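Page header: ASSEMBLY MODEL / two components / 226 residues total.
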Amino acid sequence: GAVVSQHPSRVICKSGTSVKIECRSLDFQATTMFWYRQFPKQSLMLMATSNEGSKATYEQGVEKDKFLINHASLTLSTLTVTSAHPEDSSFYICSARDRGGPLEAFFGQGTRLTVV
Amino acid sequence: EDQVTQSPEALRLQEGESSSLNCSYTVSGLRGLFWYRQDPGKGPEFLFTLYSAGEEKEKERLKATLTKKESFLHITAPKPEDSATYLCAVRTLTGNQFYFGTGTSLTVIP
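Prediction written out in full:
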């Protein structure tokens, strides 16, 4: 299957600072990437859909000024958690679809964010 | 409203004890149903895509089937390494989103 690389896998930051998470499709072009948040023992919660060259679409209840998404190319999307607080600590996962390929989406390895 | 429900929430099996996981869905129009496996602390790993009722797909000890209302993931003679959370997702005819169920946590005991 297609490969999606997410970096970093773990990050610890101080409260009030910003953190950037990268999501890259390594062997395919992704017009659309998805960002999820996952709490312990819970399923994936879609935060936003990232479209190359246009503004991201955020799910209801997700603050777009806090979770900045940029999809500048067909292989890279970034999620920046601005002014992070301890309640933002979570597991963040991206996924991407091959625009020229099958229907399924492929996931990155996830990023464990801890805000202290 | 589009909805995906998985059952059971958790399942413990003895090694070699076959069983099935269920994914029920209610969508306006199904474009595809997906099964993923997720290990702790990792992103989901793609397993199968099913497009229409009656379709079946197999991979090693796993077999996925689809009807108009639900999908089953059959696990034959499971091994401890099959222990993971199995997630089901659907994509509708309208929109780009994948709707995920809450998953089934499978534990296979040696």
